[in-house]
Amino acid sequence: MPMNLRQQALEIFHRTLAEIDVERISRRAVKEYIMPELDAPQRVICIGIGKACVAMGRAIEDALGERLTGGLLATNAVVGETPQKFRIFLAGHPVPNHESLAAARSGLEMLRANDDETTLAVFLITGGGSAQFELPVDPRLTLDDLREVNRVLVGCGAVIGEMNIIRRHLSAVKGGRLAEAAPHSRRISLYISDVNSDDLASVASGPTLPGASTLEDFHRIIQKYDLLPRFPPAVRELIAEGSIGPLPKQTNNDARSTHHLLLDNRKAIDVARAFAEGRGFVCETARDLVEGDVAENASEHLRRIADLKRRNPGRRVCLLSGGEVICPVRGAGLGGRNQEFVLRAAIELAAQELRDVVVLSAGTDGIDGNSPAAGAIADAGTAAKARALGLSPEAALHDSDSYSLFAALGDSIMTGPTGNNVRDLRLLLAQ
């Protein structure tokens, strides 16, 4: 396998990460959406939620200067310089911790204390916020209850939209309930989205945007995945007694509130495609391969790259997709959906003898599952190289231990936390 193809896949991924820099994109958003609103308000407060909110907070602080009264950021990692006017909460992910609850309480208090027509409340809403900014809807629920609910949801096979419907109904700050604390203020929400395009209500479970989910949806998802027996007793009791109420209703005529998408997975894929085309690759984007089963998804990607190669003889080709495949955890190893996707593809590449094909999948947040890697890269020789080291690809799949295998091969993609989070990017190159 020519190293050139591997190198180009890695270069396209890393250049894409650099191009979708959250801070630079947020600076443009401040000029476009916030600056025009600064004439009337006497104070500006800011609440940031999720993995990308620190970079957004820096952009807000630098652009507004003394006009920014103060704010808070709830995130699981501070990447880069810490903004000075924000109180930082190192919250939990993928399950909430005590800082997650403290951040939500502080956010509600800040909004209520400053709620009047002279206040502009800016919300920075990014992926990961569902766990990092949380408060139970009923005081009878504990942090341990919320953690257990999140663990059950992550491992049940539900897609992120379904998980968020459950989280919203059990939360005092999700599904539009955070914005309810500031009904008289002017409110601007800026989004770095980790969900499907045009579904802003699912980013961080929609703290300022209720969405269209209903109590009926809540109960339907519980039944679909047989969640009730797996939920903590306190949650079961609230559901049984009918104490879980409906979310705020979404309205389209609230002039005090606006919502703006700054960056999402589709835009990241478009950036990667532009880089690939600039290197002479014939590109195709698989917009429909987003959230399917990891094994089926990997197989379909390989079928399409082979077909793309056949349709373009003598040309280098590139298949791109993004999203988050469904990858239930089976064992106690280290890994994540990106590395399992690549490992499954590597096994099939060897079985089908698909030479001159490289597969890369990695998270734009720099974190894949419970491993320190962002993802991995492989080709038709990967499985054989692993076996030569005494490693079994099949055993790694069984134990959810894809990271250990790729780390031994030197094929892990290591970025560390990026301060971004627009889902995963998958690149398949062939020649």
CATH architecture of the largest domain: 3-Layer(aba) Sandwich
Number of strands: 12
SS content category? alpha/beta
Given the structure, what is the number of helices?
Answer: 15
Q: Quick one: CATH class of the largest domain?
A: Alpha Beta
Summarize the biggest pleated sheet.
6 strands, parallel
How much of the residues is beta strand, in percent? 15-25%
The coarse silhouette is globular
Number of domains: 2
Oligomer: single chain
Terminal CA distance: 10 Å
Average pLDDT over all residues: 93
Task: Please outline the helices and strands.
Layout lengths: L2 H17 L2 H13 L8 E7 L3 H12 L3 E8 L10 E5 L7 H16 L5 E8 L2 H4 L10 H13 L4 H10 L16 E7 L22 H10 L8 H8 L16 E7 L1 H14 L3 E4 L8 H18 L5 E7 L13 H16 L4 E7 L11 E4 L3 H7 L4 H6 L3 H8 L2 E2 L10 E7 L1
Parallel strand pairs: 1-2, 1-4, 2-3, 4-5, 5-6, 7-8
Antiparallel strand pairs: 8-12, 9-10, 9-12, 10-11
Helix pairs in contact: 1-10, 2-3, 7-8, 11-12
Characteristic terms for this protein:
glycerate kinase, domain 1, single chain, 431 residues, 15 helices, globular, six-stranded parallel sheet, six-stranded mixed sheet, Rossmann fold, 17% strand, alpha/beta
Describe this structure in words.
Strand 1, helix 3 (53-64) and strand 2 form a beta-alpha-beta unit. The protein is α/β, with parallel strands linked by helices and 431 residues long. The longest helix has 18 residues, at 294-311. The protein is built from 15 helices and twelve strands. The termini are close together. Helix 2 packs across helix 3 (53-64) and helix 11 (294-311) crosses helix 12. The chain folds into two domains: 3-15 and 266-430, glycerate kinase, domain 1; 38-263, Glycerate kinase, MOFRL-like N-terminal domain (Rossmann fold, 3-Layer(aba) Sandwich). The model has no long low-confidence stretch (mean pLDDT 93).
